[in-house]
Amino acid sequence: MVMSIRMAPPLPLIFLLIIHRVSSAGLGVSYSPSHICALKDSSVIMNCTYTYPTGHQIKNVFWTKTKDKKETEEFPDLSNDTEYSQRLQYLGDKQKICTIRLSHVTLKDSHMYYFRFTTDKDKWVGKPGVNLTVTDLQVASPERVTEGDSVRLTCKSSCSLTDRATFIWYRNSQPLTERRDRNNELLLQSVRREDAGRYSCAVHGHNLISPAVQLNVTYPPKSVSVSISPSGEIVSGDSVTLICSSDSNPPALNFSWFKGGTFVGSGRIFNISKISSDDSGEYKCRSINEHGEKYSDAVTLNVMYPPRNVSVLITGSGEIVSGDSVTLICSSDSNPPAEISWFKGGTFVGSGRIFNISKISSDDSGEYKCRSINEHGEKYSDAVTLNVMCELTII
Q: Which fold does the domain 138-211 belong to in CATH?
């Protein structure tokens, strides 16, 4: 009979396997959370606990990170690194807590971080570690919007912030306390030109403020007006400039001028050299950009000038007979209206536009003229002759 003999493994080998499994199972590091997204210049807490087998004695504990290309040491101790030594605070112990605080984090601090400890019998690096991503804030916004549009601005980060964030918005460095925001977005409904400005965002409880982004609100011409230079009284012969002002975005480049309803010129400035009474009237300008047009209110040019076209009209026609009533009327074109004086020969005989002679006699015969005068000048009419006929009495 053939006997089958099953050989058992050597006892020392079984013992060694059991010891390794126990030893491996007893060493460990736990992180909570294992992924952290933090704002630049904030402080980060990396919560950490570790375990090791009973009977082991802790010799050394420190934190390390993924090795940079320039580093030669496989697991550098961050407390010896000048970039970390002043900012790293160990909050743990040599028993089971290995939490640290890293202050004033920068974008360069984005790494995988590990806790490492050594006992009198083993060395251990807690992998996978804590993945720290440091982010700044950026405002995403359209560069240009039109008045009346709805605009959404977003406060963006390169990762989702680990801590619950309450976002704050600023326009021109002033907080927008009247706004109600949804998460990290600012909604401007029916945007107005007053909403234009430099927008930035921040997270409540942090000092970091994003770079400001300019929001440009475009709109059609508004507040179109005309100014007159020089101001004050305008006298015939003066040079007068009309200037059209317009609030619009983009700035209006098309300006037109109208006298009454008639087109008279283009450009923001309309100049009249040697103005005359014919230029008197109502003027307005029209401002146009790509979003619309608007007319100014009318302004009136009232041109002052001295008397002209002075003449005398004799009422009635035909022969003037002694005893008749005769009226002389002085006509004058001037602005402002002129004062009228009457002269017979060189002698002043009366005032007013109408000069009346009732029951005229031969003594009233002669040359008459009127003088028209205002603050800008005077002018005489040509002389008219009154030839009074005597009525013959038949006996």
A: Immunoglobulin-like (2.60.40)
Looking at the DSSP bridge assignments, the partners of residue 331 are 311
Residue-wise pLDDT for 117-174, tens only, equals 988 888 889 988 999 999 999 999 988 899 999 999 999 999 988 878 889 999 999 9
Give residue for tokens 């390794």.
20
Neighbouring residues of 294: CB distance < 8 A, sequence distance ≥ 6: 220, 221, 222, 224, 246, 286, 287
- How far apart are alpha carbons 138 and 61 in whole angstroms? 38
* Residue 375 burial (CB count, 10 A): 11
What pTM value is reported for the model?
A: 0.66
- CA Rg value for the chain: 50
Given CATH 2.115.10.20, say whether it is the number of domain 305-389. no
**Distance (Å) of CA 183 to CA 168, 219, 386:** 10, 29, 99
20 phi/psi in degrees, rounded to 5? -65, -40
Q: What's the CA angle centered on 140, arms 136 and 144, to 5 degrees?
A: 145
Topology of domain 220-301, per CATH?
Immunoglobulin-like (2.60.40)
Phi/psi for 338 (5° steps) reads -90, 160
